[in-house]
Amino acid sequence: MARGPPDYGITSIDYTKTIHNLTGKTILITGTAGGIEKAVARSAARAGASHIIVSDVVFCDTLIDELKRAGRCHYHRSQCLQPIAECIRPTSLTSKTLNASAKADMSQLPTGLDIIVNMAGRFEPYIPLLESDPDRYWSAFEVNLKGAINIARAFLPTLLNTIRGLKTLINASSIGALTTRGGGGSYRTTKLGILRFTEFLSNDYAAQGLAAYCVHPGAVATELGLGLPQEMQAVLIDKPALPGDAIVWLAHDRKEWLGGRYVSCTWDMPELVAKREEIVKGDKLKMRMAF
Predict the structure, then answer these.
(1) Which terms are listed as keywords in the entry (predicted)?
(2) 45 with 52: CB under 8 angstroms?
């Protein structure tokens, strides 16, 4: 059977089933209509989120009824859940107009905003720099890094101003940020940049209550993953439900101690939490130069 890539793990077991509760919470999920984004939305529905906001209009049109059905089929504390799926305007994440559009959309939400899950990403052909198309190579920086910056500019004000909100921002990084190999320089460099950018967000806004950290979704055969070389696709063995459930579990309560850190969705989450003191004291799960 095919094995996944190394996890660079801090836990002894990979992944345990998680239980989560988002009753009354509002979650924004950015990204295209990919498998992971859908899985996060479905998991949020099962957890009872009152508002699930997605940034892909086509995705939203097909998702609203599904999420409402998912909510009604799952009960928590004897209450029937009826999550609402909505859409932000389909403004490009790299556009300067995203901020104004976001303010208009967020003003319509009576509940404010509790969680941002930024899954937007772009993967360019896995070839060395001189063989690549300059514009396509740079587009990964535009979407992955500039997009993350624009999302933070657009939605952080609402997130931070939501009274009694979870104030949680989760950016999608990648295990690829931790390694190098032939090709893939634009994708891996941007995912490394997201780790550092998220650490800066944590440093700058933790005093206002922000809990910002990054996740590696796992080895999932998404549309992005299928752009990998054929020999690397054999390790894409994780299902979208893995990051879907793990991300919602991470976000269902405040984990400010994870601020600025890297978490893999393949790790055992209860064991990760049990290592909180060790992680914080050792300043672990952050990008550092070893001398």
Answers:
(1) Oxidoreductase
(2) yes
Angle between helix 147-161 and 185-205 (nearest 10): 20
Q: pTM, whole model, 2 decimals?
A: 0.88
Residues 46, 70: contact at Cβ < 8 Å? yes
Strand partners of residue 75:
80
If one counts every other C-beta atom within 10 angstroms of the C-beta of residue 226, the result is: 11
In angstroms, the CA 34 to CA 163 distance is 31
Please list the helix, strand and coil fractions of the chain in percent, rounded to the nearest 5, in that order. Answer: 45, 15, 40
Checking if the pLDDT of 191 tops 90, the result is: yes
Assess contact for 266 and 64: CB atoms under 8 A.
no
Any residues with CB less than 8 A from the CB of 157 and at least 6 apart, and which?
A: 103
What is the token pair recorded at 76?
């928590």
Residues identified as active-site = 187, 191
Query: Both tokens of residue 116?
Result: 């941002």
User: What is the reported pLDDT for 74?
Assistant: 39
Give every CB contact of residue 220 below 8 A, 6+ residues apart in sequence: 35, 36, 236, 238, 239, 240, 242, 243
Q: Report the C-alpha gap between 93 and 280 in whole angstroms.
A: 33
**Contact yes or no for 261/214 (Cβ under 8 A):** yes
Q: Which residues contact 50 (CB under 8 A, 6 or more apart)?
A: 23, 24, 25, 26, 83, 84, 111
3-state secondary structure of 206: helix
C-alpha of 163 from chain center? 23
Residue 287 has which token pair?
A: 């990008």
How many beta carbons lie within 10 A of that of residue 230, not counting itself?
A: 7
| Partners of 26 in the β-ladder | 51
Residue 256 CA to residue 85 CA, distance in Å, equals 27
* Structure token digits, residue 43: 């998991």
Q: Give the mean pLDDT of 225-235.
A: 74
CA 239 to chain centre: 15
